[in-house]
Amino acid sequence: MTETGVVHGRFQVLHLKHMEYFLAAKMRCRVMYVGITHPDIGAYPATSPLDLHGTAKADNPLTYIERYEMIRDALLDFGVKRDEFEIIPFPVSRPEKLPEYVPADAVHYMSLCGEWDAEKCRILRSLGLQVEILWERSGEEKGITGTQLRGMIAREEDWRQYMPKTAAEYLAEHGIDQRIRNLYYTGS
After folding, report:
1. Residue 142 pLDDT
2. 6: phi then psi, degrees, rounded to nearest 5
3. By its UniProt entry, which InterPro entries does this protein fall under (predicted)?
4. In what order do the strands lie in the sheet with 29-36?
5. No. of H helices and E strands in the chain?
6. pLDDT at site 188
7. Exposure b/e, 153-178, CB count within 10 A at least 16 = b
8. Are strands 107-112 and 130-136 parallel, antiparallel or unpaired?
9. Do residues 71 and 23 touch, judged by C-beta distance below 8 A?
10. Whose CA is closest to 52, among 41, 62, 43, 63?
């Protein structure tokens, strides 16, 4: 087991496949840092043509703090102790800034599910960071995605089953499900 690990993603919105990723990484490290990419799409918009969802508000309906709180509550609900994880910004679109946000000796755990993941892996390795691939998945193997889940929320389909209970409750309590519907249909 390593001392420190890092996972990262947009988490727009948090779903059970994200939890699978978190828990697989957490089993390999004592302290896990959860990096939230595009913490502010205005300040840190996508810069790679492979980063298809890092610029539009409809793809990024949750704020940094909303994602932070959902992730924190879900990890606690899944039994991860609060002193065993931290949640941080992870400005992947500004790779030169990443060393200011992540511990230098951490292992970066990744799942490879497409070209953008492969590019992020190359970026991290080019910075001299240690990367461990947890799994490679494509198509159906990948499972639910944030894009699919936001579409289900917008169409008022049965979406809660794909999310940690605390995250689904958070969306409803904060009106984020309605925000997603509004953004989905206006395309803003």
Report:
1. 87
2. -135, 135
3. Rossmann-like_a/b/a_fold
4. 85-89, 29-36, 2-9, 107-112, 130-136
5. 6, 5
6. 54
7. bbeeeebbebbbebbbebbeeeebbe
8. parallel
9. no
10. 41
What are 115's two structure tokens?
A: 């070209």
**DSSP per residue, 66-80:** HHHHHHHHHHHHTT-
Per-residue pLDDT, 98: 96
**11 CB-near residues (< 8 Å, 6+ apart):** 18, 36, 62, 67, 70, 71, 146
Supply 25's token pair: 């990484």
CB under 8 Å to 116, separation ≥6 — which residues?
48, 50, 51, 52
Intervals of the chain under pLDDT 50:
none
Q: What is the pLDDT of residue 187?
A: 60
Beta strand spans in the chain (E): 2-9, 29-36, 85-89, 107-112, 130-136
For the record, the structure tokens of 151 come out as: 């579409």
- Which sign, positive or negative, has the C-alpha torsion 149, 79, 8, 88? positive
Q: Which CATH architecture has domain 2-186?
A: 3-Layer(aba) Sandwich (3.40)
| Per-residue pLDDT, 92 | 94
The 10s digit of each residue's pLDDT in 79-122 is 999 999 999 999 999 999 999 999 999 999 999 999 999 999 99
pLDDT of residue 86: 98
